[in-house]
Amino acid sequence: MLYFQTWKIALILAVCALGVIFTLPNAFTTQTVENWPSFLPRHQVSLGLDLRGGSYLLLEVDTASVERDRLNSLVDELRTAMIANHVGYTNLGAAADHVAVKLTDASKYQEVHDAVAKFDPDLQFASASDGTITLKPTPEAVQARQRSAVDQSIEIVRRRIDETGTREATIQREGDKRILVELPGISNPERVKALLGKTARLTFQMVDPNASADEARAGRVPPGDEFLSAAETRPGLPTGYVLRRRVLVSGDMLTDAQPTFQENEPVVSFKFDSVGARRFAEATKENVGKLFAIVLDNKVISAPVIREPILGGQGVISGSFTVQSASDLALLLRAGALPAPLTVIEERSVGPDLGADSIREGTTASIVGVALVVVFMVVFYGLFGLFADVALFFNLCIMMAALTLLGATLTLPGIAGIALTMGMAVDANVLIYERIREEVRGGRSLISSLQAGFERAFGTILDSHVTTLVAGALMFWLGSGPVKGFAVTLSLGVLTSLFSAILVTRLQIVTWLRRFKPKVIPI
Amino acid sequence: MFRPLIVIRRIPNIDFMGLRMFGFALSAIMTIGSIVVFAVNGLNYGIDFSGGIVIEARTPQPADLSAMRTKLDSLGIGQVALQGFGGPSDVMIRVQRQPGGDQAQENAVTKVKQALGPGVDYRSTNVVGPTIGAELIRAGTIATILALVAIAIYVWFRFEWQFGIGAMLSTLHDTITTVGLFSLLQIEFNLTTLAAILTIAGYSINDTVVIYDRVRETMRRYKTMDFSTLINKSLNETLSRTILTVSTTALAVLSLFFFGGQVLHGFSIAMLWGIVVGTYSSLFIAAPMLYYIRPKGVHGRGGEPAPSPSAAPDASSNPSPGAKTGAS
Known about the structure:
The structure holds two protein chains of two kinds.
Chain A: H1 6-23, H2 30-34, E1 46-47, H3 49-52, E2 54-61, H4 63-84, E3 89-94, E4 99-103, H5 109-119, E5 123-127, E6 132-137, H6 139-163, E7 170-174, E8 178-184, H7 190-196, E9 202-207, H8 213-217, E10 225-229, E11 240-250, E12 254-262, E13 265-272, H9 274-286, E14 292-296, E15 299-302, E16 314-317, H10 323-335, E17 342-350, H11 352-406, E18 409-410, H12 412-441, H13 446-478, H14 481-516
Parallel strand pairs in A: 1-18
Antiparallel strand pairs in A: 2-8, 2-17, 3-4, 4-6, 5-6, 7-8, 9-11, 9-14, 10-11, 12-13, 13-16, 14-15
Chain B: H1 20-41, E1 44-45, H2 47-50, E2 52-58, H3 65-73, E3 80-84, E4 90-95, H4 101-116, E5 121-128, H5 130-158, H6 161-185, E6 188-189, H7 191-221, H8 227-259, H9 265-292, H10 312-317, H11 321-325
Parallel strand pairs in B: 1-6
Antiparallel strand pairs in B: 2-4, 2-5, 3-4
């Protein structure tokens, strides 16, 4: 017990040395560290947004709207299928989670079933005796659709944020339908929020020349049409349009969009891909002289007359844009449309100077805390207290090194965790020393007191540390943001203190015994 | 070679068991009181749990709170609380949770920032929608309950079920009274406070485990000793360690309280209370409770054969069985 094999000593010293080496970069500024020779480690612990300043946005994907969209288009597909098959029907419509229709002739059920199964195999059919049939997407299909909607949203969010030139943004999935966005260095995320708040679904649709907007506003929309209001009310222009539901071309066929000027007005120029260009050309060829509408997020931006067929696959969108809004729209079109609206459900942003204040306060508190503990240990345990302090120093280093190497993020509660573990870390030393004292009082010899002290305290130390680790693990598992940061440092600190308080202290005591051959234990 | 300045030379002889009725009464009052206060007052939930908006702003000139209040009250976003803190130009703006879901919170922030105009430095903006707050409360409650259960199971596994129950009850007592303190003083209860409560659970059990460990050891060594005397002996023998560990932890927490800044205030208050009450409950609740739920192998059953059943599960799970068996 009081004998260390050479390789063990080497290992303990190596761990301590590595701890110091990998902690070192954290003691200097980033600029200094970058100029270090290449054999030295340069990794610094990454600071949380509360310390370095920045914004944290938690977005929720409106997955319900994905399903709603799907059911609405199912209604359209079903209608087309029934008309094509000459099936009579009434009461066709979408409910919360299914589409229902009543067949005039109930015997046509199989025919409808087969026709629909061809384009969507993931539907559950049910029929009632009165000829009403319901089509409900399978839970698997719903789930798959929602998952892909969230995946797609993440991709679009990433593209939009990249387009704004934000550096080092983190975008990741959180749970089933949430997206976590971290924007270091951006303490006022209004612009990013505005960009993410738009779905940016762009469509080109024909205006129905025969329908009246007033009739439609009153609720009488001709079948196959929809009524959409104008994005902005401008004198001399209608406030709403009746459009054909059929989409001629949509935003996903764009290859580029740029803000530019036309007659001194900010506009957005766009370019279609080959499919889009062909469809746009055909549509404009057939409809010369008629109005078509450019629709963004269910609002009509403008509805120009087609003067001549547009064959080159290029065009401009004009509207009452400002320079900023034209450039934002171009950005959104380049990045693509979100499959569903996003809502910011949590926002936390911290300015850089508050972050700097927090670092200073956290560091001061930790240093004062450690200093007090160090003095306390020497006052109560003398030389052995000093051994414990040396172990505490290595504990702090190994802990910082572990945080740095694991790529963990240090937050303010994380710093609190460090300060707290420094207070708790010496507990192992206290347990051992108290035990040694007892053994000395019990009349044991020097060596056997030390031996018994370490041996008997070990079980207790293990038990008491494991319970703290249990609490730490639960915090990490169930906690969010700040709680997680705290859990990481607390748990790491408890683990490293097992090593330092037991092995590093013991090594010092053994070395001291050998070197000075003391007759009594100074505690 | 230097010696410690202060040495506790003699093992004290405090009659903890004689004080147990006092301890039980005090704890019963504190626990019931906490539950009553919590039921009446509730908790002063911070934005993390209640949802809403908290903006920390720094104005270019010393802040004119009443002018700002007039501006913000006219926005129609409900109650707005302004509070100076730190320097004269630091203002904390709290806006109550907006009706109408998550999007409504965002709109209110934009309104506030527009109303205050340019030149104001927003040191931090926190917006929490109603969805998140409810989830955090649920996750927090689950985490606390799981922590208590997990700790009880661990203690049960390492000792015996009687110890597990004692440990869980005393830890439960600590968490309930911490919540009670926050309810009584209406200190803001936020995520870091929750972290503190879980840490208190871990810390309080730490103390209890050390004492239980000693009780178990003494039980094995003095098989015929009166159980009440035995508990007293164990508590007194570990008292010096208890005091020293409490002190070092308290030093660390005190420096967080004084130097750690605004954000860590609630955390350090909770931790300070937890350290005090956790130590008290180990001495006056967890240990005396064993007297009533007597673990096996206690006084009167001293004639059991050498590796007593109570020692068996321990020896198999203890990584260094030699430490215990070799002791007697």
